[in-house]
Amino acid sequence: MRRGSLYARVSSTRQREQETINSQISALKEICKRNKVKIIREYIDNGWSAGSLARPQLDKLRDDAKGGIWDVLYVYSADRLARDHIDQGIVLRELKKENIQVIFKDRPLTEENKLLTDIESLLAEYEKRQFVERVRRGKLHKMREGKFFRCPTPFGYKFIKNREGYWRLVINPKEAKTVRLIFELYLKYQSNSRVAKELFKMGVRNRTGRLWS
């Protein structure tokens, strides 16, 4: 009987609430049962983006792959492993070096279907970048119109809401005095740490009442 492992990932709270992790694992377990594969380990990255390989369970999976614990890895789809085509290639090459077979759901990763997998990962990467760019341009357009989406308020300003429901930044007169002081001190000393020390001497605190860093 072959020894296998499973890898599943979701990136958002909403996906976790929809139990997509459970659905991924359930589908993979069914495939293993059908193929008479004994599941040795399950690696689950809950709430981690595929935009980076820095994921705790993926790191553990890559480490365990070198120990010969299992010889086949089941992943629901290529973009669960990594959305970026280059990142995906890095992991797949590592596993191939350890003679580990990778199966995306019910499709073994062979030379015959590798091209299809590559195309799918490229499309997933393209769609993600297109979405990020669309959001970025949309926010930039709104900001150019003086419309902001609520975010951490920059020191020296405050948000007020207009009739359209958008937030607008206006100067906070009280904090503006400290902002001017910070600029004056920096022009004098040319050092962030020295500015922080001078503010401490003057008893000037930040918005939360703590010392400046």
What descriptors fit this protein?
Hect, E3 ligase catalytic domain fold, 213 residues, 2 domains, alpha/beta, 8 helices, Rossmann fold, 7 strands, 51% helix, two-stranded antiparallel ribbon
What topology does this entry show?
Layout lengths: L1 E9 L2 H5 L2 H15 L2 E10 L9 H10 L6 E4 L2 H4 L3 H13 L3 E4 L2 E2 L2 H34 L12 E5 L5 E5 L1 H17 L2 H11 L11
- What's the helix-strand series? EHHEHEHHEEHEEHH
- The helix count comes to 8
| Shape field | elongated
The helix content is 40-55%
Computed CA radius of gyration, to the nearest angstrom = 25 Å
Task: Specify the structural class.
Answer: alpha/beta
Unreliable runs? none
- Estimate what percentage of residues fall within beta strands: 15-25%
Overall tally of domains: 2
Spatial order of the strands in the main sheet? 2-1-3-4-5
The CATH architecture assignment of the largest domain turns out to be 3-Layer(aba) Sandwich
| Distance separating the two termini | 59 Å
CATH superfamily of the largest domain: Resolvase, N-terminal catalytic domain
| Average pLDDT reading | 83
The top-level CATH class of the largest domain is Alpha Beta
What's the count of strands? 7
Largest sheet, strands/sense/barrel:
5 strands, mixed
- CATH fold title of the largest domain: Rossmann fold
